[in-house]
Design a protein that fits this description.
By secondary structure, the protein is mainly beta. It contains seven helices and 33 strands. Its EC number is 3.4.24.-.
């Protein structure tokens, strides 16, 4: 769960399950089969709850000495005020909770019913907060994290690509055999929900709400209404308090077509509950009805695979990832999963023009650079898009010029970083006597900007010197700097940031290049000109259309494109010159220097936002590599530009090949795509344009061509 919500640094134990859960070994389950063991680990079984609705507790001396006792009492008061679960100081109970100070904030889930003695709730450094204590106490009385629910994919999206490698299991979901939803809806505001950037490797969201990514997820302020309702339902707070609780609902049908319900003894004296087992539980198992046993089960997607390798070794290409409809598979006539089993993304590798020491921080990561200390604050991060604080940091990277989904590195100055704190990143080792002209781009916006320095440090520790330095705010723009670096002994280059007076002090770096000093110093051109070479053979065209003849050639609008009551369809239309609306669309075509034709989607009509217009090609043969060439234009003077997608279609099924969204500037952009044709069978191409938020979102195409062989 998210605990970086306070000004103090939180002590985290990184190896805990889901960040703050202790999975205690349960010898009582060693003889169970897999299905039973899964059920025994579930808090659906009431064996894990504190059956008398009372949780005895102790507080360690160290927590009392450090002022945690008041925080714990405030959390207890919330349970007393809103639920029937009572936390009381331990007297002589066999099982109890001890609040201790260990490494991190954590707890077991439910009562450790199989062993007598104490179980721990740890409130480590930075955990002295009422909401954190309440979160761990909810674990202790039997609650998992909210996003572990099996139905979570209807409400939130997991951004697997942003999750720290090795931490993906913290986002597993569990079916209704393990988790009892207690008839409550999914609650993004629960005190048991992860925050948006939990376990993030890059500061970007790892989980976000579907429909509105800006929705706040989780909080550590207090119980939500749903939290209160679930506690009171789990502990049958409306039922008796000195005998049997009410029966739970029957759980799901198992593989033998049977289901179970339970009740617990709400009395310390098991004699008040005839039929109770030694743990105070009574179970009732029945055969499911045929209607329930063979009820249709709809399929749900499993998580995406890792991205494939990029299709190119440098510059821009594409990569793919896949998923399977197996969580669960459709059963008994249930619906198949909705959507594609393959996704195509854009990958940005090192620029083909870059030298061996140059770095743009794209898919090559940090190249030869290394962060000095990733366990202290302030810290350097590799990042894309704006930084997390307002009034500081760039809107995006420098390389792309648009800031769209490209990376740079930045110095995060937000809490828990302190004024004067430093951190750095450093280069590979350069040989003695080597001389390089170092060029880089920096961004220093914010009233709290501290200082950025470039240092040369000798590898033997004999010397270090500052060769470039800049302090204070430098404006909301990327600026270029150059400096010569050299030493008579092996050396490394360091970039060091110093945190200023407050959080508005994010410093960003991008596009670092090294050129040999001797190359910079050359003044005369070579005496001999390089020999000329013949241009490569033009690949044969399977189809080509420049729309200059006044027709769509072999392309047709999809018959299901949206149609208004007045008969106006959201179709791709022929056009020459500019489009009817100002501040969107091209001034003319591309292939005939503004004198010919092109096609476009007119956003000035009354069609609503997200209306989609599709253009379909003729059928092309499969069996060999093919390349799609085209020019596109996506210009809008204001925010609200839509999207352009390219698909391969076979029958009714489509596979996404390319996607662009947002304003790309008032210019034509050339694109080639190596088409991925599953099974090498005949296929069609589909261009799909999606209307943006306003009537200033015209999308245009020109010069569409299909050629044999891979793109060159």
């Amino acid at each position: 769960f998210l605990i970086f919500v306070f000004a103090t640094e939180v002590d985290i134990e990184p190896n805990l399950f889901e960040g703050d859960i202790v999975l205690s070994p349960n010898p009582d389950e060693s003889s169970l089969n897999d299905q039973e063991r899964e059920k025994r680990n579930a808090q659906r079984l009431r064996r894990y709850i504190w059956t008398a609705k009372i949780v005895p507790y102790e507080i360690s001396d160290i927590l009392k000495q450090e002022g945690y006792e008041q925080t714990i009492q405030e959390a207890i008061n919330q349970f007393t005020q809103h639920t029937c679960v009572k936390w009381k100081p331990r007297e002589n109970e066999e099982r109890w909770v001890t609040f201790e100070k260990q490494s991190g904030c954590f707890s077991s889930v439910g009562m450790n019913y199989w062993v007598t003695g104490s179980q721990t709730i740890s409130l480590g450094s930075g955990c002295n907060h009422r909401g954190v204590a309440m979160h761990e106490m909810m674990h202790a009385i039997g609650f998992w994290h909210e996003q572990s629910r099996y139905d979570r994919d209807q409400y939130v999206e997991i951004m697997w690509e942003n999750i720290e490698p090795g931490k993906e299991h913290n986002f597993n979901k569990y079916d209704t055999v393990r988790i009892d939803y207690l008839n409550e809806v999914y609650d993004t505001g629960s005190i048991m929900h992860y925050g948006k950037t939990s376990f993030s490797i890059n500061g970007q969201p790892t989980i976000q709400a579907i429909g509105d990514p800006n929705t706040k997820l989780g909080q550590r302020d207090g119980f939500s209404k749903t939290d209160i309702a679930q506690i009171n339902a789990l502990y049958d707070c409306s039922g008796p308090s000195n005998g049997w609780s009410s029966w739970t609902d029957f759980g799901p049908c198992n593989g033998q077509c049977r289901h179970t319900r339970q009740r617990f003894c709400a009395s310390h004296d098991l004699n008040n509950c005839p039929g109770a087992d030694s743990y105070g539980i009574q179970s009732q198992t029945e055969q499911c009805s045929d209607e329930k046993c063979y009820a249709p089960i709809d399929g749900h997607w499993g998580k995406w695979s890792s991205w494939s390798s990029c299709s190119v070794s440098c510059d821009e290409g594409t990569y793919t990832r896949t998923r399977q409809c197996n969580e669960p598979q459709p059963k008994n006539g249930g619906k198949d999963c909705d959507g594609d089993d393959e996704q195509v993304g854009e990958c940005v590798m090192r620029g083909c023009h870059l030298g061996p020491y140059d770095c743009e921080f794209e898919m090559g990561g940090l190249c030869h650079w290394t962060f000095c200390d990733t366990n202290k604050y302030p810290r350097w991060y590799r990042h894309d898009g704006p930084t997390g604080s307002s009034g500081t940091g760039p809107a995006g990277d420098h390389t792309s010029g648009s800031g769209k989904a490209r990376n740079y590195i930045y110095f995060e100055s937000s809490s828990p970083a302190q004024t004067g704190g430093t951190n750095c990143f450093y280069s590979q080792l350069f040989s003695a006597g080597s001389c390089h002209s170092l060029t880089f781009w920096y961004h220093m916006l914010g009233s709290g900007i501290g200082k950025l320095s470039v240092l040369v440090k000798n590898n033997d520790g004999s010397d270090q010197r500052i060769v470039w330095e800049k302090s204070g705010e430098q404006g909301n723009e990327w600026k270029q700097a150059s400096v010569e670096v050299t030493s008579s002994v092996p050396y490394q280059v360091y970039f060091e940031g110093v945190r200023g007076v407050d959080f508005r002090g994010d410093i960003a770096i991008d596009d670092i290049t090294f050129k040999d000093c001797s190359v910079i110093a050359t003044t005369s051109p070579p005496a001999t000109q390089p020999p000329t070479t013949s241009p490569p053979t033009e690949p044969s065209a399977l189809d080509s259309c420049d729309f200059d003849s006044g027709s769509l050639c072999d392309w047709t609008n999809h018959p299901d494109n949206p149609e208004l009551p007045n008969g106006q369809r959201y179709d791709w239309m022929l056009r020459s010159g500019d489009t009817p609306s100002q501040n969107t669309g091209p001034a003319g075509d591309k292939t005939a220097n503004g004198q010919g034709g092109y096609i476009y989607l007119d956003s000035s009509t009354e069609h609503v936002k997200a209306s989609k217009g599709a253009l379909i090609s003729k059928e092309f043969p499969g069996g060999s590599p093919t390349c799609l060439h085209f020019w596109y234009h996506m210009y809008a003077s204001k925010k609200g530009m839509g999207q352009l997608r390219v698909f391969v279609q076979k029958g009714a099924k489509r596979w996404l090949q390319y996607r662009k969204a947002g304003n790309k500037g008032n210019n034509w952009i050339y694109k080639t795509i190596n088409l991925r044709n599953k099974n090498k069978t005949p296929f069609k191409i589909v261009f799909e344009g999606e209307r943006g938020r306003t009537g200033k979102s015209d999308v245009a195409l020109d010069g569409i061509k299909m050629t044999n062989g891979p793109c060159q």
